[in-house]
Write a sequence for this structure.
């Protein structure tokens, strides 16, 4: 079967890419915090809304370099397929370059690729984004595919690994064509209350640039709640 090779490849791939790439890069330490809440809209749990906020402290975690606010309305077609769409606002405030205000419309579909009775799950989240910038009249188009492995490691804790390339469909001033960003994460999900969990971990974000690439080493903490 293809399942075992798929899982082995995912674990190996995440582990390899979490390390800094061999090529010369500019390195930065970040702290990212995320808060996500999902609320079911019907008794069957088919329709739901999701809200998210992320605060990203960059430049050796010295300042708030990016703020992201994202919303979504989603529909669970069945236990293995979820679709949805939404809007996001992203304020990027780097040192030196101009501040950027982005308005993003996106559509996504999430598929369960594999699951077993022991609680192991492999999912694929496919997201297509239309990116509008106040500082630029062009529309950037981008595709993202996050493949995530989640498996219990104790009665309450789960190991979480994911890999996610960001692929620009077109090229604009603020939207790089081709592979623009690649994220890899390793962490542990822990319940802290009924329906609420926290997931601390290490996230590596490799940013591809025309000159020297950048590798962000990120202490990432996410809190999620579902009601």
């Amino acid at each position: 079967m293809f399942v075992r090779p798929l899982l082995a490849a995912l674990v190996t791939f995440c582990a390899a890419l979490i390390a800094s790439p061999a090529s010369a890069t500019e390195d930065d330490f970040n702290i990212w915090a995320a808060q996500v809440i999902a609320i079911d809209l019907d008794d069957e749990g088919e329709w739901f809304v999701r809200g998210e906020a992320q605060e990203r402290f960059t430049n050796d975690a010295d300042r708030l370099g990016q703020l992201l606010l994202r919303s979504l309305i989603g529909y669970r077609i069945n236990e293995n397929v979820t679709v949805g769409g939404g809007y996001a606002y992203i304020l990027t405030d780097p040192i030196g370059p101009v501040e950027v205000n982005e308005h993003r419309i996106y559509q996504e579909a999430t598929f369960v690729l594999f699951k077993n009775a022991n609680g192991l799950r492999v999912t694929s989240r496919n997201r297509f984004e239309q990116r509008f910038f106040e500082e630029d009249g062009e529309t950037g188009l981008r595709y993202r595919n996050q493949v995530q492995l989640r498996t219990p490691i104790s009665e309450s804790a789960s190991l979480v690994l994911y890999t996610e390339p960001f692929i620009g469909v077109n090229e604009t001033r603020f939207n790089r064509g081709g592979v623009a960003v690649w994220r890899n994460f390793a962490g542990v999900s822990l319940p802290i209350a009924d329906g609420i969990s926290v997931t601390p971990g290490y996230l590596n974000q490799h940013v591809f640039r025309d000159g020297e690439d950048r590798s962000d080493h990120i202490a990432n903490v996410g809190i999620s709640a579902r009601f």
In short: The radius of gyration is 18 Å. Residues 124 and 194 are 26 Å apart (CA to CA). The chain has a mean pLDDT of 92.
